[in-house]
Amino acid sequence: MSATAAGSDDDDVSGSSRLPRFGCSQSSAAEVHAFYSEWSHFCTAKSFGWADQYNLASAPNRQVRRKMEDENRKARRAARREYNDAIRDLTGFVKKRDKRVAKFAAEEAARRAEKAAIEEQKRQAEKAERAARAAAYEEADWIKASEEVLEEESEEQEQEEVEIFFCVACDKRFKSEKQLKNHETSKKHAEMVAHLRAVLQAEEGCCPDDMLQGYNLPPEQGAASTDQQGRGARGKKAKNKRRQQQQQQQRQQQ
């Protein structure tokens, strides 16, 4: 053992006069917590010189002396670590069996439960208050008026969206599809379609059948009317009729 080790046996822990005391059964929770917090992280100030394995004075040369110093430092660190662990383990052992710690833990749990109950009660009260305000809520007059205007506009729009039945050849409007079909089977309608066929044929030299679909006109009747009425048609009127015919076809396709 080295010469310096003899004097280090009396070394005490660092700041021992400032370390918190264990206290008694009347100690406060803060005092008990401070005691266990300090000793649970205890670190000694002893040099542990007695743990040296070699006497440096016996070293034959400088290199051997350095090797001895390294081994002694390792031995001191190991002894210091073992000592600190023993103190910390003892602190934990005592803390588990300290009735004051158990009492303070129970009181803290009770305080937390009470706080949680108060917060839950507060949330329930706020929820009930919001429900009461929602039940007593009345819309402002301007909101009600806006809703009525929107309803009226919606009804008007629905009325405007009623389907229109129109005969382009005769330039007539009907209230229902049945009336339109009855009209298409009439003699007057057939004459107007035949006239339109004649105009188209006189204008372009042909009359596509798909342009006259939906008029229930036999092909023979249309052909017979072509020679009688096609010569005196005007080009401008034929174009207008043709445009109306195309619009009617687009409506039927939609």
From TrEMBL:
Keywords: Coiled coil, Metal-binding, Zinc, Zinc-finger. Residues 111-163 form a coiled coil. One of its GO terms (molecular function) is nucleic acid binding. The keyword RNA-binding does not apply. Residues 1-20, 208-254 are annotated as: Disordered. Pfam families: zf-C2H2_jaz (PF12171), ZUO1-like_ZHD (PF21884). Residues 245-254 have a biased composition (Low complexity). Residues 233-244 have a biased composition (Basic residues). Residues 165-194 form the C2H2-type domain. It comes from the Eukaryota. PANTHER family: DNAJ PROTEIN JJJ1 HOMOLOG. This is C2H2-type domain-containing protein.
